Amino acid sequence: MGSGHEQVVFCSDPGSGLRAVIAIYSTALGPALGGTRFFPYASEEAAVTDALALSRAMAYKNSLAGLDLGGGKGVIIGDPRTDKTEALLRAYGRFVESLGGRYLTACDVGTYNADLDVVARETRFAHGRSEAFGGCGDSSVLTAAGVFQGMRAAALHHWGSSSLAGRTVAVAGVGKVGSHLVDLVVADGASAVVTDVDRAAVDRVLARHPGVTAVADTAALVRTPHDVYAPCALGGALDDETVAVLPAQIVCGGANNQLPHAGSAELLRERGVLYAPDYLVNAGGVIQVEDERHGFSFARAEARTATIFDIARHVFATADAEGVSPAVAADRLAEERMRSVGRLATIRLPH
């Protein structure tokens, strides 16, 4: 396959309609943690491609965040609005359980805390559960908090001040994470311009913040004057056409896999745009989910999420020192931790 993954599992249960893929990229630092995405993929091949990319990104995210976790991802093929049933979720839980803890699952696009409560009826390895079941609840709050910390670090590096006061932040996607991010940037004194395919999501933001501007779509958003671009919807947001017209000086958003290809980060660098690597700044959610494993404390998870500010500053400084993009610098730092700390598993312990 050549992807570098440790394991890829195909899961099928015709009775419930379950068709899923679980990809484990690495367990060098610990069990592979990554959410389950429920999405109407056009084909099984498209689902596999997404699972491979997302699981790799999770390994790097968990490493860079300093967590003792590897990276994995589950994807369920189907429309969550019509195909999600108790039987399907529980069938998926049994497949997760069959991996014996090599893979820990949680929420992602199309799955919610209540879904993980159902999955957890069949497996010990479902996290991101609802608070009523002793879980950490909605992880989007701390995901947005981490993106905001990354944005502050980028502002300090680029403009010499961590404050966003007087800046304009363009948020593409104001769902769970994006809407919380708007709250944070507005509270910090920034203006915000937003868009979302779901008009109701936009209306909820405008109801809270009448001063926020909404535009029709992402194409309009990237042509609207702004200082910081925050992609918070699905991946591939920074395609060559977008990068070519982007007015922002900083890109920092919550979406996963924002760079469509290896050269995207260099294109941003050539244009003088400071890119805050997505898997670095959106790690607040996985920090929250990881904390659940130890008896959840929001304050503890929030404090750890705040360290994204310092990690981002280190990534930007490393990128400058090595003459590379922040994306390359972040990858190098994550890979070094996987190698150096992961190597310790070779020191045998008594049983």
From TrEMBL:
Positions bound to NAD(+): 173-178
Keywords per UniProt: NAD, Nucleotide-binding, Oxidoreductase
CDD domains in UniProt: NAD_bind_Leu_Phe_Val_DH
SMART domains: ELFV_dehydrog
Chain ranges of the Glutamate/phenylalanine/leucine/valine/L-tryptophan dehydrogenase C-terminal domain: 137-346
Residues at the active site: 73 (proton donor/acceptor)
Molecular function as annotated in GO: nucleotide binding; oxidoreductase activity, acting on the CH-NH2 group of donors, NAD or NADP as acceptor
The family this protein is said to belong to: Belongs to the Glu/Leu/Phe/Val dehydrogenases family.
InterPro entries xrefs: Aminoacid_DH-like_N_sf, Glu/Leu/Phe/Val/Trp_DH, Glu/Leu/Phe/Val/Trp_DH_C, Glu/Leu/Phe/Val/Trp_DH_dimer, Glu/Leu/Phe/Val_DH_AS, Glu/Phe/Leu/Val/Trp_DH_bac/arc, NAD(P)-bd_dom_sf
GO biological process: amino acid metabolic process
PROSITE patterns: GLFV_DEHYDROGENASE
Domain of life, per lineage: Bacteria
Protein's name according to its UniProt entry: Glu/Leu/Phe/Val dehydrogenase
